[in-house]
Design a protein that fits this description.
Elements (H helix, E strand, L loop, with lengths): L3 E5 L8 H7 L4 E5 L5 H8 L4 E4 L6 H6 L5 E4 L9 H6 L3 E3 L6 H16 L2 H9 L18 E5 L3 H11 L4 E5 L5 H7 L2 E2 L2 H7 L2 E4 L13 H6 L5 E4 L8 H9 L5 E4 L18 E3 L8 H19 L23
Parallel strand pairs: 1-2, 1-3, 3-4, 4-5, 6-7, 6-9, 7-8, 9-10, 10-11, 11-12
The structure holds nicotinamide-adenine-dinucleotide.
Nicotinamide-adenine-dinucleotide binds next to helix 7.
């Protein structure tokens, strides 16, 4: 009999061998939900000691039905799909893996920026269709001397900045919570949000999805952008109001967008589909073979720590651990 039962709501891994190997240290078994829907998830999570979650929504109602759960370990960075206040109330610590794909997402943001500005997907389609033409891609502007505005200056954009700077791009940011010395070391100027929209040739979103960032990119924001500017989003879809973006593109308020994340994934009847000046990738910024291996191992190590009564490395709600006698045992 396994000492602990660990449930998995959903996964992007081809198998869970790495997690299983880590969990074997504490004699825990692993059960994957048959499908990422509440009833199927609850079938494996109801009496589990821990839950791994990827994209499935872990709602208040679900958390309240978990009788033994001590940790919800997200296979990822953002934790907006888990009801944190209710987890805290129930003494369940929620953990994330903040550092498994920093190279990948910052590379992807640059790849989207370069693809948009150099019109690579558009030009590729022309050539594949037998059209070897330059006029169709006009105009393209030089990167050197332009301005990139990073919304949020956390771990990922701190890696985007030097990559962009190496192309001769000046980097500015808006992040209300970032210490001055981080900006100084990065050679990045802090500006107000409205100013960032006004002066940036490319705006790349790296803020978390929060009530105050939901719909941050709305009609009012697009009105302030440069007509030749590109919007890049590798953070979370709902930060952008997609209807307003489509209308702004139609009105020529910005030149294009390159998005790895969308309000609804996969998109259904999105007004952004089928446009030559919109590049879409299917939420793959995080992915490389190496990043997935790190993610699976690090998320499983958090479960092992918590079930052993040790403190996790990256708790989102450390207050959930307070008052739990087993959490303070070594
Ligand atoms: N597409 C993908 O595959 C993928 C992969 C990893 C992460 N992400 C997303 O990228 C985002 C950024 O990741 P990170 O590692 O840089 O995050 P991080 O936690 O290191 O930093 C987040 C930053 O956002 C800032 N912030 C908070 N509220 C803000 C606001 N209203 N306006 C501007 N900035 C604000 C914070 O001060 C912090 O500096 C994550 O929140 C996650 O949703 C996406």
């Amino acid at each position: 009999m396994a000492q602990f039962h660990v449930a998995v709501s959903d996964t992007v891994f081809p198998n869970l061998d790495r997690a299983r190997a880590v969990l074997s240290q504490i004699g825990a078994d692993l059960q994957l939900a048959a499908e990422p829907k509440p009833e199927a998830i609850m079938r494996v999570a109801k009496d589990a000691d821990a839950l791994f979650a990827t994209y499935a929504k872990i709602t208040a109602e679900m958390i309240r039905q978990m009788t033994r759960c001590r940790i919800i370990s997200r296979f990822g960075i953002g934790v907006d799909n888990v009801d944190i206040p209710v987890a805290t109330e129930r003494g369940i610590v929620v953990t994330k893996v903040p550092d498994y794909c920093l190279d990948e997402v910052s590379d992807h943001a640059m790849a989207l920026l370069l693809s948009a500005v150099r019109k690579i997907p558009f030009a590729n389609r022309l050539v594949q269709d037998g059209r070897w033409e330059m006029p169709a891609v006009v105009p393209i502007h030089r990167l050197r001397g332009t301005v990139l505005g990073l919304v949020g200056f956390g771990r990922i954009p701190q890696l985007v900045a030097p990559k962009a700077q190496s192309f001769g791009i000046r980097v500015v940011t808006h992040d209300p919570y970032i210490p001055k010395d981080v900006l100084e070391r990065a050679g990045v100027q802090h500006v107000e949000f409205g100013e960032l929209l006004k002066i940036s040739d490319y705006v790349s979103i790296h803020a978390p999805l929060l009530p105050e960032t939901t719909g941050l990119f709305n009609a009012e924001a697009f009105r302030q952008m440069k007509p030749h500017a590109y919007l890049i989003n590798t953070a979370r879809g709902p930060i952008v109001d997609e209807g307003a973006l489509a209308a702004a593109l139609d009105a020529g308020q910005l030149a294009g967008a390159a998005l790895d994340v969308m309000a609804k994934e996969p998109p259904q009847n999105s007004p952004l589909l089928g446009r030559p000046n919109v590049i879409l990738t299917p939420h793959t910024s995080f992915y490389s073979e190496e990043s997935l291996a790190d993610l699976e191992t690090k998320a499983a190590e958090e479960v092992v720590r918590v079930l052993r009564g040790q403190a996790p490395r990256n708790p989102v709600n450390p207050e959930a651990l307070k008052g739990r006698p087993e959490a303070s045992r070594a």
